[in-house]
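Recall that a protein's primary structure is simply its ordered list of amino acids. Everything else, from secondary elements to tertiary packing, is in principle encoded there. The following example makes that idea concrete.
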Amino acid sequence: MEGNANTVHSNDNGKEKKPTDINHSGFENHAETAWLQMRKQWAGDCSQKPEGVPKDPVLSWTTTYEDLLLSTEPFHQPIPLAEMVDFLVDSWHEDEPDD
């Protein structure tokens, strides 16, 4: 299978290279390279992020939906999407009329 661009190889650190990493024909996909660079800038370096470490919530458990709507102050740090979704779902459930 030598010379086959779809063959999966290992590099020096033991990680497998993707078939797109292997370039036998001299073709370089500039759009893919630019996309990967932009993605890395947007997502950051995932190898530096600790996994499974719980973080303290940004929003206080006493914060209400009205508090967020009426506040003109910026948040002291970004609110993770999952935390904001949980907050909104909880606040919507609180606003549901009791049957």
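The chain has a mean pLDDT of 75. Residues 81-95 form the longest helix (15 residues).
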